[in-house]
């Protein structure tokens, strides 16, 4: 297994999008931002470096659990998974997108606490549930770019 695995500490940059594929597989996609900080010895202060944004894709049980956990924009998280670099063309230019196919995702407990609840699975999804998931996926595809700057501390 010669795949690049990566762990990212960051924050939820945009509200997660949950859907169920036409064959019934749960899927959740979210944007994660991470802003590295460097200590500037000349000024004696910490400086933020340019923010990196990644798309995180979750499948099956992980998608269901992340969706049920109700992660909101600004939530500090840890993500581990397989790194994927995707090339695509837009407006006649080749671009690259960094994505993580997540194997684990959870809150960053350095910056908060959590009340863990084991999952209890219910019955199969109804047609109404699947339609709602498809509608949500369509909204993600049609959405305009969102303001993905790091949320300001309260």
From TrEMBL:
Keywords: DNA-binding. GO terms for molecular function: single-stranded DNA binding. Residues 120-154 are annotated as: Disordered. Residues 127-137 have a biased composition (Basic and acidic residues). The keyword Methyltransferase does not apply. InterPro entries: NA-bd_OB-fold, Primosome_PriB/ssb. This is Single-stranded DNA-binding protein.
